[in-house]
Design goal:
The complex is a heterodimer of chains A (86) and B (595). Chain A folds into two domains: 42 residues; 35 residues, no CATH class. Chain A has 86 residues and is mainly alpha-helical. Chain B is mostly helical. Chain B has 22 helices and three strands. Chain B is globular and about 95 Å long. The chains are: A mainly alpha (86), B mainly alpha (595).
Chain lengths: 86, 595
């Protein structure tokens, strides 16, 4: 199947794929900081106008959600699968 | 009845009743034709009040057709077509019938103009949908179904109590908007009934409990209908109720937190229903024209992408028999198309540009920013991070990539599903992308047309902001991949109180309470008894001489009266019972004869 071949072609070039992705990310952050490309005059708060604000928000938010949720789960929320069976 | 008005729900009900008698050969045609006909009927409805029916002292309104009911009716009709197609190869007619009754209940609620009609269809939804869980069979599904039903009956009672109080206070049964804070106890009870169906914490635990136990195709219906019908009811009845904003934000984050911990992919998706419905509830609470538009648009888009996600994970369950991440992985070689469709669903729910969530979710967040509810808007953005983290990344990664944890038989069984399931997923995928790319399709249906022109999702800033948030979430995901490895656990939620607390109380009662009982018994024998005997002797004398005389006379009188009453009552009761049974028997015969 063609779709599988495409996925395997990409997986075989994992390092390259990761590099391309990182370049794209860097480009997006740069473009976001250029007022000529991204007009931020309608942003609702001041912090949104800082360059890279939403990138940091995504990264920190993601890490925060994972760490905080796992800590919550360790408080006794996560149990073995047969907990309710008797 | 004011006119002959064909309710779209009636098409589904009649189709469902006739289904068992449709010959096996023609069944697939019937399964496609009935929901298509119902959907066509929805698109043909004219705005206005239709299907009025006098009943006792009230006027029941079956067909209130306006922009708000039309957008919800349209999407319910559409998803019924797609979900039936998805389960087309399921041989049990009962399952299809239950699903259609359930969809009919949803359409009935949406077009109901009065509370009594709404309540009847509301209960129809609960009682029909539980069969979509029970048909999974096995003790877990049956138990989950009973819990689901009990919770919904409780919610229905709250709704009914509210309706009765409302009627008592206003003398009207019309279903109109309550002003914030002015509904009194009736308003709050009705709101509680609606909030339970919308799965707002703390009334939410039934949802992940039940939806993860439903049949592979039944859960597609479940994911679409109950919560979004409740969102419709909230839009209609409680727009602008401030309390819904914090509740919605809490919901949006609550679902995200539990999704981190979840090992079952369908339960993870169920928690994300709570999260996504949180956006809609918050939008209803903001109550501005743009926020209500956002809530409706998001419900519309959500039904499609969540249905698609449940179809993708349902296909994995159907083909492999597994839905836990710890038993899956590396399936891209076996189920590549299912992966692609699920990924489209994941990108849509995460609100990637060009996918449906992008043009709907952002409307609610923008309404939040514009209403200067900055904390709400930022927290909803944080929930978006969580949404992409789980549904867009965790689900596809741990099912189709990651470490292959499949047992041999799971791996052997895995393959892309039958054609009808693939087509249903393809249709839903197309619609998710179509809505994201061609906004007028959805925006033309929104209830507040006057503000539609003010909102443009595709501005450079919005696209850039969304891409940065989501792609850097992906960076975080891959950096913290180790922390997200699934574990074979379940997570306790508030259903613990009705699943475990009762049993723990019983066990506790068996131990300490029994010992206490025995101790009191011994104490009583040693100390209490001698004193008691003396008192008893005195009491006995008093009893014999004074009370007996009085009581004997009274008892004789009561017995005589009782005998008379019993005779009269029994005769009547037997008569009425006989009549009822005779009538039922005649009806049954007529039914069998003419069918």
């Amino acid at each position: 199947m063609k779709l599988v071949q495409l996925i395997e072609w990409l997986r075989a070039r994992m390092r390259l794929v990761v590099k391309v992705c990182l370049v794209v990310l860097a480009l997006l952050v740069i473009l976001d900081a250029l007022p000529a490309v991204v007009d931020k005059s309608h942003a609702h708060t001041e912090v949104e106008k800082w360059p890279g604000f939403w990138a940091v928000f995504g990264l920190v938010g993601c890490a925060f959600l994972i760490v905080a949720s796992k800590a919550f789960g360790k408080l006794g929320i996560m149990r073995e699968e047969d907990y309710y069976d008797e | 009845m004011s006119e002959l008005w064909l309710h779209p729900a009636l098409i589904l009900v009649l189709g469902a009743l006739a289904l068992p008698w449709v010959p096996e050969r023609a069944r697939k045609v019937w399964l496609l034709a009935v929901p298509l006909l119902a959907f066509w009927r929805v698109t043909q409805l004219e705005p206005g009040i239709h299907g009025e029916l006098g009943f006792l002292n009230w006027t029941l309104v079956f067909g209130r057709v306006d922009a708000l009911s039309q957008i919800f009716g349209y999407i319910m009709g559409l998803v019924c077509v797609i979900a039936t197609l998805y389960g087309l190869h399921v041989k049990e007619p009962g399952q299809h019938s239950a699903a259609w009754f359930y969809a009919a209940g949803s359409l009935g609620v949406i077009y109901a103009g009065d509370f009594l009609t709404l309540f009847v269809f509301w209960e129809l939804m609960a009682f029909a949908s539980v069969f979509l869980i029970w048909y999974r069979r096995g003790t877990r599904a049956v138990a989950a179904g009973y819990r689901y039903l009990l919770v919904h009956v409780a919610g229905g009672l709250s709704l009914l109590a509210g309706i009765i109080l409302h009627h008592g206070a206003t003398g009207s049964l019309r279903f109109e908007t309550f002003q914030w804070g002015q509904g009194g106890a009736a308003g709050w009870l009705i709101l509680a009934g609606f909030l339970l169906n919308a799965a707002v914490p703390p009334l939410h635990a039934w949802l992940p409990d039940a939806y993860a136990e439903g049949t592979f195709n039944g859960s597609v219906f479940l994911s679409a209908l109950t919560t979004k019908t409740a969102v419709y009811a909230l839009c209609r009845g409680f727009a602008g109720w401030e309390i819904l904003v914090p509740l919605g934000v809490v919901m949006a984050l609550y679902g995200v937190v539990y999704a981190v911990l979840e090992n079952d992919c369908r339960r993870l998706l169920a928690y994300h229903i709570i999260s996504q419905v949180g956006y809609m509830v918050a939008g209803v609470g903001m109550g501005t024209a743009m926020a209500i538009n956002g809530a409706c648009a998001h419900a519309f888009a959500h039904i499609l992408y969540k249905g698609l996600l449940f179809m993708g994970c349902g296909a994995v369950l159907h083909m492999t028999g597994e839905s836990r991440f710890t038993e899956l992985g590396g399936l891209y070689k076996k189920m590549p198309w299912t992966f692609l469709f699920t990924l489209i669903g994941g990108l849509s729910i995460s609100a990637f540009p060009l996918f449906s969530g992008f043009v709907s979710k952002s409307m609610i967040v923008a309404a939040g920013f514009e209403g200067h509810r900055l904390w709400a808007a930022y927290l909803l953005m944080l929930a978006s991070v969580g949404t992409f983290l789980h549904t867009g990344l965790k689900v596809p990664y741990f099912i189709w990539f990651g470490k292959n944890r499949c047992r041999t038989e799971t791996w052997e069984r895995a393959a892309d599903p039958p054609w009808n399931m693939n087509v249903a997923m393809a249709v839903a995928s197309f619609l998710c992308i179509f809505i994201g790319c061609y906004t007028p399709y959805l925006y033309k249906m929104l209830p507040h047309q006057e503000v539609v022109g003010e909102y443009h999702p595709y501005t450079a800033y919005h696209v850039s902001e969304t891409l940065l948030v989501l792609l850097f979430t992906a960076v975080g995901f891959f950096l913290l991949l180790k922390k997200l490895e699934p574990t074979p656990t379940i997570s306790l939620d508030l259903d613990w109180f009705y699943r475990k607390a009762g049993r723990l109380f019983l066990r506790w009662a068996e131990g300490p309470v029994q010992r206490l009982d025995a101790w009191v018994g011994t104490l009583y024998q040693n100390i209490g008894l001698s004193g008691l005997m003396r008192t008893a002797r005195l009491m006995g004398q008093f009893d014999q001489r004074v009370i007996d005389g009085a009581v004997d006379g009274l008892a004789a009188a009561v017995a005589a009266a009782g005998a008379r009453v019993r005779k009269a009552q029994r005769g009547h009761l037997q008569e009425s019972l006989a009549l009822a049974f005779a009538a039922a028997a005649v009806l049954l015969l007529v039914f069998l004869w003419f069918w």
